């Protein structure tokens, strides 16, 4: 379906076409949801079919007649279809304050081909066709999510600014298990962290109402994508926007989240750190003005509840850099400082080529405010204050195209289960170090490595497999083979020289 839609864009840039296609998918979604609710009301409670409160009670947006998909589909071949779509978006925002300022409204611009729009409407009309009652929202949600990922791939580095690859998000969610409580992302992009958190709750038998979603985003266009993405999934969320960003205008200043998931931009140098030297969030040390990595980590720790946990994507340099005081901040995050505990729980080294936005090697930081026990799905965890778990996942993942990798379901389960077992979760089994893959290092080991957190320093080499021949015997055999090859090479050299000598020169 994406290939078919992509063919319609002609010479449009993917970054522009993204909003055209995703806006129509969103419009189809809310119209389908409205029509399904309206049909149910007409069958069971006809007088309620025009009562907007009946729709709001089920988190269904009110869609006025001129904005309903059936009306747009009937007029898809009209030269004025772009204006009709813009009018539909305006009408929906007017009747649903939660969507005010969110929907794209530039379908009527002269540069946008009306024939292409009509064909795209016909294509989108086929989404969820024939789906059983109740499945339409899920199908449209998956289509929206897939399109987001494909557009991110088409846009390359720019695409990575709004989209974190799904397999990376799934790994982070499976590790910290956001089952019940407040979920926060201070740089939320298009909202993928929240979508996967809700999926986790659903797949593990929880109630969607048990998690509350909060986020902030500084890019207004990306904020709109996020709001639409969550609305397509039926996720009620408090997502704030301002162009100053989470450092300089913390919209959720008083929030203390049970779970934080974040993929902040790597190594940002122009983040205005000089204006925040006395900020109370920097309890572990003042982050350098030339790199925001440790500002993000401390902002996230600041927003954790007393038993909160966080998963954060950062560039590999954050694990070992000692420049501009970063080594001291990392030591403080590990050891703790007066009035603030050590919070580094687990480090995961990721394979390359996972991200659309950068080829810089990346890692995952997992932080916990209470490492003395903590809670996972209402079960107490063991005391981990004297250890840090290191996982080297660089050999996992598989190529999905020429430039990008993904984790498989098995990869995600392997990594997450190691973390759960190490934390002491009852159903995860016993934890064991695996040479070359994972190791629970004590604090003395970490100190002896200068508080560097690179997993490769701790996990060691993978165990040798497949050849039990003693080393001396293998070495002697290799030496004999090499000497035989040298002798053969010498014979060939003599033969070539003899034949060259026999050639008659002109």
UniProtKB/TrEMBL annotation:
InterPro entries: D12N6_MeTrfase_N (IPR022749), DNA_methylase_A-5 (IPR003356), DNA_methylase_N6_adenine_CS (IPR002052), SAM-dependent_MTases_sf (IPR029063), T1MK-like_N_sf (IPR038333), Type-I_RE_MTase_Subunit (IPR052916). It comes from the Bacteria. The keyword Transferase applies. GO terms for molecular function: DNA binding; N-methyltransferase activity; site-specific DNA-methyltransferase (adenine-specific) activity. Its EC number is 2.1.1.72. It catalyses: a 2'-deoxyadenosine in DNA + S-adenosyl-L-methionine = an N(6)-methyl-2'-deoxyadenosine in DNA + S-adenosyl-L-homocysteine + H(+). The keyword Nucleotide-binding does not apply. Residues 2-113 form the N6 adenine-specific DNA methyltransferase N-terminal domain. One of its GO terms (biological process) is methylation. Residues 136-464 form the DNA methylase adenine-specific domain. Keywords: Methyltransferase, Restriction system, S-adenosyl-L-methionine, Transferase. Pfam families: HsdM_N, N6_Mtase. Signal peptide: none annotated. Belongs to the N(4)/N(6)-methyltransferase family. This is site-specific DNA-methyltransferase (adenine-specific). It comes from Prosthecodimorpha hirschii. The lineage of its organism: Bacteria, Pseudomonadati, Pseudomonadota, Alphaproteobacteria, Hyphomicrobiales.
